[in-house]
Amino acid sequence: MSGSLADVEFALRSVTRTVLDNEKYFGDLDAVVGDGDFGYSLARGFEIVDAQFDDFDRTDPGVFLTKVAMTISGRIGGTSGPIWGTAMLRLGSALKGSDTFDAADVVAGLRKAVEGIQARGKAELGDKTLLDSLVPAIDTLEQQIEAGASPTNAVAAMAATARQAADDTAKLQARRGRASYTGERSIGSVDAGATAIAVILEKLAQDYQAR
Amino acid sequence: MSGSLADVEFALRSVTRTVLDNEKYFGDLDAVVGDGDFGYSLARGFEIVDAQFDDFDRTDPGVFLTKVAMTISGRIGGTSGPIWGTAMLRLGSALKGSDTFDAADVVAGLRKAVEGIQARGKAELGDKTLLDSLVPAIDTLEQQIEAGASPTNAVAAMAATARQAADDTAKLQARRGRASYTGERSIGSVDAGATAIAVILEKLAQDYQAR
Amino acid sequence: MKKFVNDPKQFVPEMLKGIALANPDTITYVPEYNLIMRSDAPNNDKVSIVQGSGSGHEPAHVMAVGPGMLDAACPGDVFAAPPADYVFETAKRVASDKGVLLLVNNYTGDRMAFEMAQELAEAEDIKVATLFIDDDVAVQDSTWTVGRRGVAGNFFVIKAVGAKAEQGAELDEVIAVGEKVNSVTRTMGIALTACTPPAKGAPLFELADDEMEVGVGIHGEPGRRRAKLVSADEIVDELLGAVVPDLPYASGDRVALMINGLGGTPISELYLLFGIAAQKLADQGITVAKSYVGEYCTSLEMAGASLTLVRLDDEIEALLDAPASIVNRIF
Amino acid sequence: MKKFVNDPKQFVPEMLKGIALANPDTITYVPEYNLIMRSDAPNNDKVSIVQGSGSGHEPAHVMAVGPGMLDAACPGDVFAAPPADYVFETAKRVASDKGVLLLVNNYTGDRMAFEMAQELAEAEDIKVATLFIDDDVAVQDSTWTVGRRGVAGNFFVIKAVGAKAEQGAELDEVIAVGEKVNSVTRTMGIALTACTPPAKGAPLFELADDEMEVGVGIHGEPGRRRAKLVSADEIVDELLGAVVPDLPYASGDRVALMINGLGGTPISELYLLFGIAAQKLADQGITVAKSYVGEYCTSLEMAGASLTLVRLDDEIEALLDAPASIVNRIF
Ligand SMILES: Nc1ncnc2c1ncn2[C@@H]1O[C@H](COP(=O)(O)OP(=O)(O)O)[C@@H](O)[C@H]1O
Ligand SMILES: Nc1ncnc2c1ncn2[C@@H]1O[C@H](COP(=O)(O)OP(=O)(O)O)[C@@H](O)[C@H]1O
Ligand SMILES: [Mg+2]
Ligand SMILES: [Mg+2]
Ligand SMILES: [Mg+2]
Ligand SMILES: [Mg+2]
Fold first, then answer.
1. How far apart are the C-alpha atoms of C13 and C21, rounded to whole Å?
2. Of ligand 1's atoms, which has the minimum distance to the CA of residue A36?
3. Which of D108, D120, D141, D224 to mutate to test the interface with A (most CBs of A within 10 A)?
4. Contact, D310 vs D185, CB < 8 A?
5. D219 flagged as catalytic
6. pLDDT: is A182 or C72 the higher one?
7. Under DSSP, is residue A27 helix (H, G, I), strand (E, B) or coil?
8. D57, D148, D159, D164: which one is catalytic?
């Protein structure tokens, strides 16, 4: 099994749509103990990705993702701009230099993205950030691929893990980001970023199914 | 029938009490189309009258009222300070120079008070001010006295007239004071000052009854 | 009631005490008369300028005391003109050989208090004159009322007479300048929420979530009409539509434009309104030569704004440019 | 939502346009990067000072641009740190031979954006340094968070580094002064109402009619605790009780005292709080040598206030006294 630019375009279209459709929902999640701008910030960036979708450099899948990443960090403010921009930049860099990639490249690229997020934001697992659903989801993806699952099934499993992990963030106390100032009061509500990862992956799994 | 300092003290105590007891009510009346401070303004002035009640110069009933009037215009702000202060000053001046007065002196004094209010505030009857209940009430007092009524009955009749006239101010459009800016919107609610006169006279009538 | 307050009856005195403690070197506070004055007043080479009015409009007028502006202010309680005695005492304390000018926003209570005070002052041979400010175009039918109200435009009158007085002008010259500025100044306001006087503890009126009060007074008096809340662009159209034709201001005019906050509106929104208004005036050929954005004359914590235009000439512009500093300062 | 606004997405750009139109002679506005800068910057004999942060805190920081204060500011959207690109572009445009100092309120998003911008700037050989401001004592356990937040105290850091830079000091001297001021500055805030970001259209939290949020953040972050609304006296005790022992400030100290409004509280109430606080500090032997009352760092239209103390020494006092002027002005 190998992927190409078309696969990246397909996935990115799905993510973009989900972010734009959930602007209000993501914002409401962030308002519980954060400042409510998470949905707005992401949407303002992905809005531009959407508008310029056809214009990004398509030399190869990695270059394409790199250019998208620069748009995102150039336009999204707050915590999410650097976090999401860095993540996509690292993933893009990992895929650069070849017209195709395989599932293992994707997993390796996502691991690099996580490293990038940690370099920027200094968060550990358990600090109640998007890492808490993203990292277990990547673990699941890796296991599925090693077990020989189809991309569709692998993404579906990944989404299920992310959802469970996102819901579990309700038990955690926020230790990074705006929500951390509330201390124990952050316990009881899910993390906005972690939930966004789950929502994005669930939609991606659906789209794969329907592809 | 003739009156003395004791009668003035009796009446003033009644008025003072009514003003203090109705601070909130008078303010609410003024808030409908005015700025809601009428009750507060009157109360701040009469509070001092109350506190200093025993200290005012008691040379004669007129001097006593004059001193009270000066306290009122020295402390009450808004429209009510000059209006009520001037009214009491004129009434006091009219009664000055003698230890006693008769009912006709009171009517003449109240007429002077009305002139004072008009000199200060330039309001005509029908402009929806306290004059619209005060003037008919004085008319009734005069008629009652001419007809030989007792002070108690005269004041009761006066209060009844004031109440009716105050209620009738609801039909008028305000042409003076803060309420006048609202134009036609002032129609439908009673004037705060006119109603205060009615409330004060009703309580005074009650107190006379119980004297 | 969402306020920082102890006993509501002490609201004004406690505020005045704060002003005094924040300006110990320049301001004298006389509690008996709610009096805030320049510590160096009176200056016998200068007409003294006094304004009193109800409280609740801060920074007007107690915080407008300082060189080039007011020599003294004596507020009444919230939304109530000061008692005549306060005004008289204030005039007496800042009485200078050149005279005292009393500035009065045109309301029934204020007119009466200042007229009484002027009589009392004249009886003591204090040279005193009174100037009424009435810039609010919202009051349309002034046949029956005491006339138009004085609102945010009073800042420009204070600034001009304050500067003129600092130049050593005579009382009649100072009055002339004040009357001139008042005659070319027009204001209209709009409220998005009501305000709550501390002693009352409840809002003076209710506005639904999607309503605004057009032409509101600064004491919670209802305005010209209640309307559905519209966009900032449309609101500016409404305000300019009332103010511009009133004088009228015309193509070729140079003006000062003020967007004044009514107390609860953040300055971000005021600059947004300013930008829209300046653009629309430019489109009509009217040049905004001086700009004022912020809180000048408020109505407690009311969310809302007013728009003021002043038609400039060289004299007025120079007076507005003259140095001045007041209690209410940034640094 | 009771706001003057057109399209909420254009809220920040329309505000910036208003600032530019109100200051045509002194300010340059670059819409692509939400950039407001002194038209005469950079000055190669002077370190340039830049602050960016989320919007919604006005006058901080876009309205703090001017001589003796910031050379430029590049806000993000409401309550969102600016994208790194904006900061980088801003640093590039005001880059002077003496260097650029980036002031950053200590929040995750701001830290990251400014770190990225500093990397980008250094890659282009721009001499640049970053200074973090973290004066908010409300954040108690900073082991796990990004640390204390930067709030109204940033005004003093800007003022001090701005004055030092105007004197022609070198970058490291300017940084040293900024770090010193930050190290002796402490703030604590209290909210009586929540605030509503324009793009969200609903309040960020709900406070009952008789509740207050103690130690609130300037982005609607909940504070130390929610409590029953109490008198102004008790509120000042609560704020001083958190701020004074933190440094600690002690008998014999000379301090600057700031009562900062959070956006929806009228200045009358701020002076009332100031008077109470100044009195209570005097009772503890702490001398209020400089006073600041008004809005410096807000949270949209939130009703509330913060109290800041700065321990003064001769150097800091002289820097605070140095002349300065900013966009947000009275005259
Ligand atoms: N240090 C961090 N590292 C990684 N993710 C973080 C960090 N801090 C916050 N986040 C994530 O960002 C989300 C909030 O994003 P956003 O609202 O844009 O940030 P801000 O707090 O600046 O308003 C949180 O829900 C969390 O998942
Ligand atoms: N010009 C006037 N002459 C006489 N009475 C007046 C006049 N204007 C207002 N009033 C009376 O005063 C009352 C309001 O008093 P107050 O609230 O103290 O005045 P303000 O309008 O200054 O707040 C009105 O209800 C009315 O009866
Ligand atoms: Mg957020
Ligand atoms: Mg009234
Ligand atoms: Mg009043
Ligand atoms: Mg944010």
1. 12
2. 17
3. D108
4. yes
5. yes
6. C72
7. helix
8. D57
Query: Which residue carries 């000018």 as its tokens?
Result: C101
Evaluate whether D137 touches D246 at the Cβ level (below 8 Å): yes
Q: Which residues contact B210 (CB under 8 A, 6 or more apart)?
A: none
Structure tokens given for B111: 């007429």
pLDDT at B1 over 80: no
Phi, psi of C36 (to 5 degrees): -115, 120
Inter-residue contact C307 to C258 (CB < 8 Å): yes
Question: Can you give the pLDDT at residue C144?
Answer: 64
Report the gap between the CA of C53 and the closest CA in chain B (Å): 9
Residue ranges around ligand 1 (CB below 6 Å): A 30, 34-35, 37-38, 41, 78-80, 83, 117, 121-123, 129-131, 176-178, 191-194; D 80, 108-109
Read off the pLDDT band of D142 (50, 70, 90): low
* Residue with the two structure tokens 């103990």: A33
| Residue listed under structure tokens 């239209």 | D301
Contacts of D82 in chain A (CB under 8 A): 77
- Residue B44: closest CA among chain C residues belongs to which residue? C9
> How does residue B186 score in pLDDT terms, banded at 50, 70 and 90?
confident
- Pick B82's closest partner by Cβ from C112, C197, C199: C112
The reported pTM is: 0.94
**Chains C and B are in contact, defined as 3 or more C-beta pairs closer than 8 angstroms:** yes
Instruction: Please judge whether A36 and D79 are an interchain contact, meaning their C-beta atoms are less than 8 angstroms apart.
Output: yes
Is residue C52 within 8 Å of residue C86, measured between CB atoms?
yes
CA separation for the pair D113, A84 (Å, rounded): 12
All domains of chain B in start order, with CATH: 2-210 (1.25.40.340)
Among all bound ligands, the one having the nearest atom to the CA of A193 is 1
Let me know if A22 is exposed, middle or buried by CB neighbors in 10 A (0-12, 13-18, 19+): buried
The β-bridge partners of C18 are none
Ranges B173-187, C291-305, D247-261: which has the least confidence: B173-187
Amino acid D94: pLDDT: 98
How large is the average pLDDT for residues D159-182? 98
Label residue A35 by pLDDT band (50, 70, 90): confident
Residues of A in contact with D79 (CB under 8 A): 35-37, 78
Q: Inspect the interface and report whether the beta carbons of D268 and C55 lie closer than 8 Å.
A: yes
The ipTM assigned to this model is 0.92
Q: Which of D219, D235, D244, D262 is catalytic?
A: D219
User: Rounded CA gap, D31 and A70, in Å?
Assistant: 19
Q: Do residues B45 and B77 touch, judged by C-beta distance below 8 A? A: no
pLDDT band, very low/low/confident/very high, at B71 (cuts 50, 70, 90): very high
Q: How far apart are CA B99 and CA B61, in angstroms?
A: 6
- Cβ–Cβ gap A77/D205 under 8 Å: no
User: What's phi and psi for D131, nearest 5 deg?
Assistant: -125, 130
- Kindly report, residue by residue over C176-198, the tens digit of the pLDDT: 999 999 999 999 999 999 999 99
Residue with token string 């929502």: A199
pLDDT in tens, C214-255: 999 999 887 888 999 999 999 999 999 999 999 999 999 999
